[in-house]
Task: structure prediction
Amino acid sequence: MTRSSSRIRIAVGAVISAAAIAAVALAVPASWPTSHRSALSVTADPEPSTSLLACGGGVLAIGRDAADVSALASAAPQRLTVGVTPGAPDPEVADIAPADVPGAPAAGSFAAEPIDRERTDLAAAGSATVDDADLAGFAAAACTPPTMESWLAAGSGLTGAADLVVLANPGDVASRVELTVFGAAGQIAPDAGSGVLVPPRSQRVVPLAALALGEQSPVVLVTATQAPVQATLQSSLTRTLVPGGIDQSVPTALPAARQEIPSFTAVGGDSTADTLVRVLAPSNAATATVTVTSIDSGEQVYRTDPLALEAGIPLEVDVATLPTGRYSATVEADAPVVAALWAATGVGEGSDFAWYVAAESIDVPSLLAVAAGPDPRLAVVADPDEDRTIVLTEDAGAGTSREITVPAGDAVSVALDGGTTYRLDPGEGGVHANVTFAGSGALASYPVVPADAAAAPVVVRPR
Result:
């Protein structure tokens, strides 16, 4: 009913005589029942959206051109593994042009349209190996949906690091990106990270040294306007002219009071390659604890005393040297935090390192792509309230299935096949998961990205 029609009805009612009203009142029996009619409502299910993923691309090198030490070059292409919902057509493939690296292979993006009003799930991941005089190691990363906000809790601005923030825009609209750095002096907005224009279907690269020179434990907040972007942080390390490894880190989980790093690999015997946990409370001061649990034994092997976190200043915790094995880490705080963990195979020639980021909760069946690499494994952590039984199915859900019981608050690790896509059904409740790789001089990891749940039904109530 419109407002104008309401006013007409009020005006007509106002001229009805009191006598007529009294007559109507006398004509209605006192025991006349009152009725309640429910408000009219319509429930509509929104159309599912296109599934879209963007990849960070191959490994890049900086400083190879003596005439231009800031120039970027391609060091190794990215080998991709891609999967979609069984029965769905192959995803549309588009190139993301590396605007800052002339002649480099394009990064990939993938799009899958809904079928019969059902979302088409999509997963992709890639890996690369480099063995050059100035750059060596193994890197693997998931291709992730572009977002308006992401957190890169990795990298270093110290001497010997040559880290790069890689921004990919797989869409048709240009994006303008702000890069905010959290470091030893708190939150800053460096000029090099202000108003970074990422054209449609292109990639931009910003050296971390231009954003956080001298910062030991930076955290970079990537904020996009106009169009979402996919962010990756490529890390590389050189120790006295000896390459110390490479890594490609996707964003860590959004700020939350509890962060789960489902699995990381420790290589014992080298005290100089201790495990480091980086934690940031971006907005409010917080008290946090870091707990490390052995996946093999289920025993807690390390726990910090309460850590005082200053708002906007990252804190790095040096975990005691751990015996060789697989572990999970949990960060609990009384305010939202972001977290990630660094581990290395050593510090000498032929060593490698990896950043293990916190994983978002998986509440709906989701696909995961396993890149090619050494000893790929899936680790799953259950939420702390109760046990979970998950179902892992090969060939993106069309192959053999196996049930895996995950005790409450604990983690399990299972072997995977590289170059394959799986479907992970978390059952009732949420789990956190990541894919890890470990071999001689090779470490890498990336989180399992939850599928976008279907949009909630919209209830429309006419007025």
